[in-house]
Amino acid sequence: MYLDEYFDSRFIESLEGYIRADVLKILRDCSKDSNECNDDKVRLYVSSGSPEHWLKALTFAVRNGGFAIWGSEEVEKTLHDDYLKITRTKHVFTLPQPPIINIFYATENIGIIGLGIITTIIIDGLNPFWEVEKSLDEESVKKYLFRWLIKVFWLHSKVLENPNDISKWEGIKPPKNLPKQAALQSINKPRLKSEVLSKLVDEVERGLDNTLKFFKEAVVVEGKIVKMGVIQPPHICMIDINSHKLKEVKKEVLREFAVADDVIDSLLSVLVYGCKNVLLIGRPGTGKTSIAKFIARELGFEPFVVTANAHWSRVDVVGGPMLVGQNITVWKPGVLIEALARHFRVKNEGRRGVWLIIDEINRADVDKAFGEFFTIFSGPEPSEWVIPDSIVEEWRRYSSDPNPYKDILQEVEGKLQKTGSGYAVPPDFRVIGTMNYVDVVNLFVIGEAFTRRFVRIVIDYPQDLDKEVELLLSKIKNYGGLDDVIRLVDDEALKYVKDVTNELRRIDRLAFGPAHLLNVLHIFLAQIKLKLSLGTPLEEIRRDIKKILKSAIESSLSITPLWDEELRKNIENVLGRVLS
Question: What average pLDDT score do residues 405-420 get?
Answer without folding.
Answer: 79
